[in-house]
Amino acid sequence: MWFDKDKLIDVRDALAGRERPVLDGARLHRVLGTPLHAVPEGDEVAYLALGCFWGAEKLFWKLPGVYVTSVGYQGGMTPNPTYEEVCSGRTGHAETVKIVYDPATITYDDLLKVFFENHDPTQGMRQGNDRGTQYRSAIYTTSDAQTAAAEAARDRMQANLSAARFGTITTEIRPAAEFYPAEGYHQQYLEANPGGYCPVHATGVTCN
Predict the structure, then answer these.
(1) Which H or E run includes 152?
(2) Sign of the CA dihedral 58, 63, 68, 69?
(3) What pLDDT, on the 0 to 100 scale, is given for residue 111?
(4) Active site residues per annotation
(5) What's the CA gap between 9 and 3, in Å, rounded?
């Protein structure tokens, strides 16, 4: 059966997935040295999808106050998918960055500013030449406060984009479903592969 990878699939067509994660065991961040699965007391979690997760993750691990970042799959139906399954368009997942951060040092609004200023949130199911639902713009929130902040940031960014003659923001904003960590070779990919290709499709418009 043929699937249009630019359209989200129906749950009836989703792949079955698997019980075990494709990333097994405890792992440390290649740059920060912190455990990928840890959330220290007082820290918070953000889930942001802005195209290819290799370059997106690097944007966030460099920020002060970020304890750890990891990449994975979120927003779809298939449990514990592989990268190949996500690329097929039959999981419904977006390539997502998980960010654990200290809100006393960096705020959720700070993260949203980096998010909106480092991709084109008007492109729908793609970023540049990367096409498919896995590359869609999305914010998966963990609280009502995050949802309100995300919607407010979207509205500010829309006003600025409209003034610059860009189209309508397509960013998906909804409560976070389960985050499925990606395979080990995807974690901090651009640190392990500094020549890796993953462009940032920024519009040049600020979110303020």
Answers:
(1) helix 144-163
(2) negative
(3) 98
(4) 52
(5) 8
The residue to which tokens 């820290």 are assigned: 43
Phi, psi dihedrals of residue 181, rounded to the nearest 5°? -60, 140
**Alpha-carbon distance 155 to 145, whole Å?**
15
Sequence-distant (6+) residues with CB within 8 A of 150 are 112, 139, 141, 173
Asked if 93 and 81 count as a contact pair (C-beta separation under 8 A), the reply is yes
| Alpha-carbon distances of 115 from 10, 47, 76, 89, 139, rounded to whole Å | 28, 10, 20, 23, 9
The confidence band for 2, taking pLDDT boundaries of 50, 70 and 90, is: low
Tokens of 186: 């995807």
Query: If you average pLDDT over every residue of the chain, what do you get?
Result: 96
All structural domains of the chain: 11-192 (3.30.1060.10)
Q: Is the pLDDT of residue 199 over 90?
A: no
pLDDT of residue 26: 77
pTM of the predicted structure, to 2 decimals: 0.97
